[in-house]
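hey so i finally got around to running the thing on that chain from the lab meeting. sorry it took forever, my laptop kept dying and i had to restart like 3 times. anyway pasting the input first so we r on the same page abt which one it is
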Amino acid sequence: MDDLSLIAFASAVLLLAGAVKGFIGLGMPTVALALLTLQLDARSAVTLILIPMLLSNIWQFWRGPDMIGCAKKHWRYAAILTLCVAGTVWFSQSAPDRVLRAVLGVFVLVFCFFSWRDMVPPIPSHRVRLFEGISAVVAGLVGGFTAAWAPPLAMYLTGLRLERDAFVQALGFLISAGSVSILVMFITVGHSSSPDLAISAFLLVPTLLGFSAGERLRHRSNSEQFKGFFLGAFSLLGANLLLGTLLG
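ok and heres what got predicted. didnt touch it at all, straight out
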């Protein structure tokens, strides 16, 4: 795929991913990766979403109600996530693309299942540290492979029963921390080049345009109906990624 075709394809994907996030609040990275890997290898797909993912989540964290309180509450999770992402990227440098696609497929399915069923139980107060550590390690391992850390991260925050604004701000803080780690490590090990990162920076524009459009549409449409259609379609896409690696 030549550069112009790549930019056009990735722009369309990030426009859609941003719109979906603005419309129903689902994770932009998971949506973008599931679509980008239809044409690109997994590491190239991750590289293209790095800058939009990092900057959009820093903005999300900054817009929240209590930046200092959020950071104090979730710094342990952020530290574990950052270290696990870095370690996973380092030790998985030679992992074949089909393994990364399989991991992505599994977590797209997990993401869709728990988003659809809305079945995460509350975390008992005396078990918060335990589940914090487990979730951060799992999110770091998966994030280091594919940046698809939404399922364990969102499940943990849902279990805390945070207010919506605090939930959104915590997502922004933690994904920003993980994004910095994966960006630094991808550059360190040579997965990301300067031209790739320049394209990634450009893709922030369609991402934010899509997000803005999605927010406006949310107030005019049936978001639950669209959510069901979207999750059904992406369940099929996740299954296709997984079966393609197992049978191919």
